[in-house]
Design brief:
- With about 375 residues, the protein is of the alpha+beta class.
- Among the domains are: about 80 residues, Helix Hairpins (Orthogonal Bundle), CATH 1.10.287; about 100 residues, HSP40/DNAj peptide-binding domain (Sandwich).
- About 25% of the residues lie in helices and about 30% in strands.
- The protein is built from ten helices and 15 strands.
- The strands form six sheets. It has a four-stranded mixed beta sheet with strand order 10-11-15-14. It has a three-stranded mixed beta sheet with strand order 1-9-8.
- The longest helix is centred in the first third of the chain and has 14 residues.
- It is elongated.
- The relative contact order is 0.10.
- About 10% of the residues have low confidence.
């Protein structure tokens, strides 16, 4: 017999604990399950089940560790008479490890002649979800707005009312179960598997006449306009879910959902960070030196700020509650005003004389200037 070592099949060591063996089996059974379109492998799936059936049983594992595969042959060379097909039921094993739903999903029948079959006729299926990118102006995102979104959706066919055809009848290939049972002999007896019926694609029924309007799909692509209320405060990357307004479901299943993902255009003055707003305010030299009242814009209109004499570039003022409203929440962020003193690059002759006169006055008694000059 050229059978692969059971420990190697599960990828565990010979000293592996029962829990390590169980974890390895769970992972590999899901990986090689025949219904797994990417990694499904029926032969490996059966091999994994056989290995677990032996190594999960303390008595059989002891026999295997001592005599290898020879312990389970019927020739008596190892001093054992082997065991019959009734000694093991992979259907029970999968139910124990994965729950009762796994057996029906996988189509695994038991080796004792019992078969687990689950009909999938007309199982309701939710429609697919849609993701739509929506671009907003800065003000629209801050204040909220209404938008009309145009997108293509699968709508229920008006001709066949979503059925896909007319004069329904039971699928003759699967007898209405939606599954095909196949049998194969193995070491433990007859091995039964189930696969989706190709004739009816698992629905359990076919139509005498296919709907020409939707080519049997039960739905048609249609462009649809949906008006959406966008809440205040959304930002780039925020997603809004519109429940049940997406593409039509199948076999009476609910419609899918629509997800709107926003992209907000930048503002020429305001900069946003979460719910806070930042505004850089330019000051002339005289405004910065002498102080002034400065009119500035905010999200809710213009206000006046008192600029203190001697204000320098980088100084920041906090305006509490003047930021952005939290989406679907309470309260607002803050607004931060950052001053920037603008040095003129062009001066008239008279302005130059004034600046020169100013430079000749004693203005160098500021502490920072004194500390700097100590090191000259």
């Amino acid at each position: 017999m050229n059978k692969k070592d059971y420990y190697e099949v599960l990828g565990v060591s010979k000293t592996a604990t029962d829990e390590e063996i169980k974890r390895a089996f769970r992972r590999l059974a899901k990986q090689y399950h025949p219904d797994n379109k990417q990694t499904g492998d029926e032969a490996k799936f059966k091999e994994v089940g056989e290995a677990y059936a032996i190594l999960s049983d303390p008595k059989k594992r002891q026999q295997y560790d001592q005599f290898g595969h020879q312990a389970f042959t019927n020739n008596g060379n190892a001093g054992f008479s082997g065991f019959s097909a009734d000694d093991i039921d992979l259907g029970d094993i999968f139910s124990e490890i994965f729950g009762s739903g796994f057996s029906g999903f996988s189509g695994f029948g038991s080796f004792g002649g019992r078969t687990s079959t689950r009909a999938t006729s007309k199982r309701p299926r939710k429609g697919p979800d849609s993701l739509v990118s929506v671009t907003l102006d800065f003000d629209e995102a801050i204040n909220g707005c209404k938008k009309t979104i145009s997108l293509e959706l699968n709508e229920k066919c008006d001709v066949c009312h979503g059925e896909g055809g007319f004069d329904e009848k039971t699928c003759p290939t699967c007898g209405g179960s939606g599954r095909i049972i196949s049998e194969q002999r193995s070491l433990f007896g007859v091995f039964q598997t189930q696969t989706t019926c190709n004739e009816c694609e698992g629905t359990g029924h076919i139509f005498k006449r296919i709907c020409n309007a939707c080519n049997g799909r039960g739905s048609q692509k249609k462009r649809k306009d949906i008006e959406v209320s966008i809440p205040e405060g959304v930002d780039t990357g925020y997603q809004l879910r519109i429940s049940g307004k997406g593409s039509a479901g199948q076999n009476g299943g609910p419609n899918g959902d629509i997800y709107l993902e926003f992209k907000v255009k930048p503002h020429p003055l305001f900069r946003r960070e979460d719910e806070d707003i930042y505004l850089t305010v330019p000051l002339t030299i005289t405004e910065a030196i002498l102080g002034c009242k400065k009119e500035i814009p905010t999200l809710t209109g213009n206000v006046y700020l008192e600029v203190k004499p001697g204000t320098s570039t980088g100084e920041k003022v906090k305006l509490k509650g003047k930021g952005v409203k939290k989406v679907n929440g309470f309260g607002k962020g803050n607004m931060y005003v950052i001053y920037k003193v603008i040095i003129p690059s062009k001066l008239t002759m008279s302005q130059k004389r004034l600046i020169k006169e100013l430079s000749e006055t004693k203005l160098d008694d500021e502490e920072e200037i004194k500390n700097f000059r100590k090191y000259l």
